[in-house]
């Protein structure tokens, strides 16, 4: 495992933020941390990137201890936060060259690496424009490019697509996918469940500083149940009667109940409703989504 953490605990005053978190991330994979606000996601990232010390527990990145060997850890990682960390008064090219120089690359090497990244992130046409003229999506792409100047083995992305429009978010997802295909390891925190579903090899769900579930997206969906049938009624009283009859759950005029996904089961449900004088206005069937996982396991 290129990222390993055992027994991480952290409190700020009387507020307990992490309660014995354990993680393991194989090299060349994506781990997504999901959880409600205040669950401890950003604190984990800060500990693993040497910005915060855990109260107890142990963590390593590429074999380096995040507390005792912080300088070595910083040499193999990069961190992209929730907001683009570019210098708005410099051009895209100047931002990248500046980072290269700060990473002790020679001037020629820094410029060569900058041009490689500008091409990779489709920013060549804007490389001589000041960053303050960039759109939100362009700024985020430049920010991610800046984190790659030194070719880190591990990238921490803390809500990297916050505030982006759907098209810019898709572009960022493609860029992240390319990095993983090149062997980079990514730890991602996100509030977009679709983002985790698309990008992550494995998902860890945090709630109140504890891991409540972990696994692939499909495994987590299976954990909260198989197929679901949703029945929509014209009025709530009908929905309540149907829920009592079928053993489902109501949400206003909607009844939700588990299913084996077969047409036979759906027909039985509809026949049973008809026999009791209940007729849904609309019926749908679907697999659980990560939204279902999130709502079920963090309730």
From TrEMBL:
<keyword id="KW-0813">Transport</keyword>
<comment type="similarity">
    <text>Belongs to the ABC transporter superfamily. Drug exporter-1 (DrugE1) (TC 3.A.1.105) family.</text>
</comment>
<keyword id="KW-1003">Cell membrane</keyword>
<keyword id="KW-0472">Membrane</keyword>
<keyword id="KW-0067">ATP-binding</keyword>
<dbReference type="InterPro" id="IPR003439">
    <property type="entry name" value="ABC_transporter-like_ATP-bd"/>
</dbReference>
<dbReference type="InterPro" id="IPR003593">
    <property type="entry name" value="AAA+_ATPase"/>
</dbReference>
<dbReference type="InterPro" id="IPR027417">
    <property type="entry name" value="P-loop_NTPase"/>
</dbReference>
<dbReference type="InterPro" id="IPR050763">
    <property type="entry name" value="ABC_transporter_ATP-binding"/>
</dbReference>
<keyword id="KW-0547">Nucleotide-binding</keyword>
<dbReference type="GO" id="GO:0005524">
    <property type="term" value="F:ATP binding"/>
</dbReference>
<dbReference type="Pfam" id="PF00005">
    <property type="entry name" value="ABC_tran"/>
</dbReference>
<dbReference type="InterPro" id="IPR017871">
    <property type="entry name" value="ABC_transporter-like_CS"/>
</dbReference>
<keyword id="KW-0046">Antibiotic resistance</keyword>
<protein>
    <submittedName>
        <fullName>Daunorubicin resistance protein DrrA family ABC transporter ATP-binding protein</fullName>
    </submittedName>
</protein>
<keyword id="KW-1278">Translocase</keyword>
<feature type="domain" description="ABC transporter">
    <location>
        <begin position="3"/>
        <end position="233"/>
    </location>
</feature>
<dbReference type="InterPro" id="IPR005894">
    <property type="entry name" value="DrrA"/>
</dbReference>
